[in-house]
Amino acid sequence: MIVARTLAALRDARRDARGPVGLVPTMGYLHQGHLSLVHAAKAECESVYASIFVNPTQFGPHEDFAKYPRDEARDLEMLESAGVSLVFIPSVEEMYPAGDATRISVDALTGVLEGARRPGHFVGVATVVAKLLNAVQPDRSYFGQKDAQQLAVIRRMVRDLLLPIEVVGCPIIRDDDGLACSSRNVYLAPEQRQAALSLSRGLRAAEHAFAAGLRDAEALRTIVRTQILAEPLAAIDYVSLADADSLAELEGSVQGPALLSLVVGFGPTHLLDNVTLVP
Ligand code: PAF
Predict the structure, then answer these.
(1) Looking at ligand 1, which residue's alpha carbon is closest to its atom 5?
(2) Ligand 1: residue whose CA is nearest its atom 2
(3) Cα–Cα distance between 50 and 4 in angstroms, integer?
(4) Which domains does the chain have, with CATH numbers?
(5) What would the pLDDT profile of 113-128 be if each residue is shown by its tens digit?
(6) For labelling, which of 118, 188, 257, 259 has a CA lying 20 to 30 Å from the CA of 149?
(7) Could you say which DSSP state residue 246 is in?
């Protein structure tokens, strides 16, 4: 496995890559969710590249950029055994050269949910993903459905900028107890982790009610909130039921595919989870 730490090294190696090339962009501290993206890429691409870059521009001033978990040696072992052929690990200076002044703002889709809770976050995400796609020039790039709004924003950015890249969304990977895999799960104390199981429990309860015919948007949100509010350690940021394409919050009866998503705080750690409900 090649480890490329500069654009020059990446471009050198990319010239010789057998196609199609699949890219799995990550911020490192890998878990089964990331590996599932690598496996999806391996199934469809001749060469699989990954990137590890903790992107400063997608963190707010009071967020965990400095203490975001990092373990490069472990990440490299995991990527190598998963069959990745190249890992791009650029420095901040490589990704944001001196005088860097260009940002990408996807104006639709970003004023709600995580975009409203974390102003500027999706400008940072869209900008760095555009840079990574330009640097690597993959045929396909793989992202997890856990960050559903991120996936929607990246799809729109790739479409709007006419990038010749297929964006592939992959299902959420959960631990055996139902908790969605996330690098930030490492921050949870055991009792917070236990309480965090209320997220998937709430989503599952709403999913069952939906399958049984319940269509009222507020009633579905209430089912989720009730499960989470039963946990004193959990602080709900939001529980949303939104149109799966526009991300506009739904009222009344759910008619088309809908994204039931939530963010819940456990101390300073905020966890995301979601399911898509299709009538
Ligand atoms: O989902 C992530 O890990 C990051 O937001 C991404 C897509 C790698 C951009 O920094």
Answers:
(1) 125
(2) 26
(3) 10
(4) 2-170 (3.40.50.620), 183-277 (3.30.1300.10)
(5) 999 999 999 999 999 9
(6) 188
(7) T
Q: Give residues with Cβ within 8 angstroms of 92, minimum separation 6.
A: 56
Query: Rounded to a whole number, what is the distance in angstroms from the first to the last CA of the chain?
Result: 45
CA dist 138 and 157 (Å) reads 15
Six token digits for residue 243: 């149109």
pLDDT score of 272:
98
**238 CA from centroid of ligand 1 (Å):** 21
- 137 token code pair: 């020039």
Is residue 34 annotated as a catalytic residue, yes or no?
yes
pLDDT at 116: 97
| Gap from CA of 124 to ligand 1 centroid (Å) | 10
> CA-CA distance, 69 to 27, in Å (whole number)?
9
- Residue 179's Cα: distance from chain center in Å? 15
The tens digit of pLDDT for each residue in 34-75 reads 999 999 999 999 999 999 999 999 999 999 999 999 999 999
Q: What is the distance between the alpha carbons of residues 97 and 11, in angstroms, rounded to a whole number?
A: 17
pLDDT tens sequence across 95-104: 999 999 999 9
